[in-house]
Amino acid sequence: MTSSIGIMREKGKFHDDNGRSYGKVTLKQIEREEANRKENEYRYIDRLYEAGKCDLGNPPTGVWVISFKKWALGKFGLERLANSLMNGEFKGRPEAACGRLEALGVSKEEIEAALSAEAKLEEPEAAEQEAEPQPEAKPSRVNRDTLSKVMTLGNKLAAKGNDRSAAFVRAWQIVKAGGLELTVRGVSFGSRQEALKRLAAYDPAKVRAFLLPEVDNPADGNAIAVMCGVQGGRGYYKLGYVPAGDTRIAASVRGRASIRVLPGEIYGARLALAV
Questions:
Q1: 9-36 in b/e burial notation, b at 16+ Cβ within 10 A?
Q2: How far is CA 219 from CA 170, 214, 216, 224, 240, in A?
Q3: pTM for this structure?
Q4: Pick from 204, 181, 169: which is nearest to 274 by CA?
Q5: What are phi and psi of 136, to 5 degrees?
Q6: How many other C-beta atoms are found inside a 10 Å radius of the C-beta of residue 63?
Q7: For residue 266, what is the DSSP state?
Q8: Which residues are within 8 A (CB) of 221 and not within 5 positions of it... i.e. 6 or more apart?
Q9: pLDDT tens-place values along the chain, 275 residues long
Q10: Could you tell me which residues come within 8 angstroms of residue 155 by beta carbon, excluding any fewer than 6 positions away?
Q11: 175: CB partners within 8 A, 6+ apart
């Protein structure tokens, strides 16, 4: 809108997207016109809703979906809209529901609170027909924790240069699985096979692991080394590296790390990172 105004001001006129033209106008007048258009659109949706021709899961045709959701946000509130998205348009895709709510200007904290409700809320018409009010459902701790982890990890992944939508999808997959499991690379280098054989003789619960970023690594400044040792031992030994394609995710997760040694002709290792 602003760029169009700037261009047309040189000619002393303003044209909106529908081809209507004005004489010389101020930005305030244009904003007022836009506000009136939105108000009329919301009144139109209100009339359709009162006539039973649209509801939360059935936006009217000819209305931009974001405008409809903003109307629904004001009409029914954040919690009801969030539950409608989770159980309708974005069922099974909570990361997409989070993205839609962010597009509506809802903060991360408000999204986490809204999506933590355990019970599925019914559509407005059904709720109004209830003979007796139902007791308020207590928030599910599992849901709240899960969604908080998805939001936190998704934002970390997006901040590291990933596509935001893809980042939240990957974050949901990792949280749903309880963490991330990777194959340690470079385990056949040097004396690492001997180290793995020794580790295999210990109780896995006593084997400790952590990740060590190697920003000064001449081959790859994003390299992350996998360090292992035994509880009560004298130190840690470098077993190998996080796979190159997974370093961004591993750097974002950085939760509790554990190692599973895989015996064979060539010993291998699987690194598990909890979230």
A1: eeeeebebeeeeeeeebeeeebeeeeee
A2: 27, 10, 9, 12, 14
A3: 0.49
A4: 181
A5: -65, 130
A6: 16
A7: S
A8: 214, 215
A9: 444 444 444 444 555 555 555 555 566 776 777 777 777 888 888 888 888 888 887 788 777 777 888 888 888 888 888 878 877 777 767 767 777 888 788 887 777 666 654 333 333 344 444 445 555 554 444 466 778 888 888 888 887 666 777 888 888 888 888 888 999 999 998 889 998 998 888 888 888 888 888 888 888 888 999 998 888 776 788 899 999 888 888 888 877 888 999 988 899 999 999 88
A10: 108, 167
A11: 146, 149, 150, 153, 275
Amino acid identity, position 149:
K
> Hey, is 46 helix, strand or coil?
helix
- Domains along the chain with CATH numbers: 2-50 (no CATH), 178-274 (3.30.70)
Q: With contact defined as beta carbons under 8 Å apart, do 127 and 152 qualify?
A: no
What SS3 class is residue 1?
Answer: coil
C-alpha distances (whole Å) from 3 to each of 7, 75, 109, 209 are 6, 32, 33, 55
